[in-house]
User: What shape does this take?
Amino acid sequence: MSKRILYVIDSLKIGGAEMLLLGLLDAVLERGGAAHVAYFTPGPLAARVAERGVGMTRLSKKGLRDPRALGRCLRLIRDWQPDILHSHLVKSDLVGQMAARLSSVPRIITLHNTDPWREKKAMSLMYRAATAGADACIGVSARVSDHVARTGGFRADGIETIVNGIDLDHFDPARTEPLDLAPYGVRPGAKVVAVVGSLTPQKDHETFLRSAATLSQRMPGTVFLVVGEGPLAAQIEAQARGLGLGPERLILTGAITRMRELLAALDVLVISSAWEGLPMVLLEGMAMQRAICSTAVGGIPDVLEDGVSGRLVPARDPEALAQGVAALLADPGTAARLGTAARDTVAARFSADVMRERIFALYDSKHRPRPGARRQPGEPRLDSPN
Assistant: This one.
């Protein structure tokens, strides 16, 4: 494959879609192709994109409030001449898909979540208008595909389910040294429970905090980590302190890029999300044989089986989450057994290589030569967003 793929994504912060993008960049380059990344919000993954020699263009500092984002994406397409535009997440779908449509570039969407906003008429109509006629739509789980077919304006037979995949050689607990958590304030010998993800309403940190407040009374040797960054950081910290969770009990670490080392250091990984697609951190935690307690939302129950490879609890139920985590902490033997089964599940069903091959097959099938298109040497010359 020697195609030029333009990826459009909402941010370069650490998140599931963003980590998936890094893997796609590697695979495109390994196959002799070229890639460029257009984005809205900067983040620590920009350095990892740059390490790969991949160019980046920021479309806007103001998100969708800046109408010039569409113009910048149009100029990027004109100057860089991609063969395929592949967008991830809602802002990027709105701008990237419209720009590709206006430029007659083949366009693919990856749908990552069972987003509640799809039930809202105004937002749903705007999204449908921007994404109409997309050449391919990828759902990261069967439940995402079903949800979007019902609410998103895509025909069920026009959505291809390609589940997220994991590199098991990279996420290998036998070859991973656990991250030293002492610099973050974790005392030696403490049990460590963490929620990992963007600090946004989707991840429902309030439920995690309330369960942590309950657990801190029942299991006082436990330390709770909130790993990630996002707009709710100050609110989450204030809620934690209001619940009596001091900095010695609950620690906001910010972003941590060494994900496998972090996961290796945890006793329990928590996913408290109110809605999801198929979160990459779930697959990463399973590959690392972690004990996992997760809400049963989105595609998660299709992967994590309650009592077999982890614990599932209802969404927005702090007491149920606390009980699930407590059971894992109280019985290390069962926790280890569930972790082993979790890795076996990922190894059998969630191969990164299979995922990428199926995506590249879509690139091949949807590519069409652009009449009169000429390659421009070098990277695009674009104005920086104001």
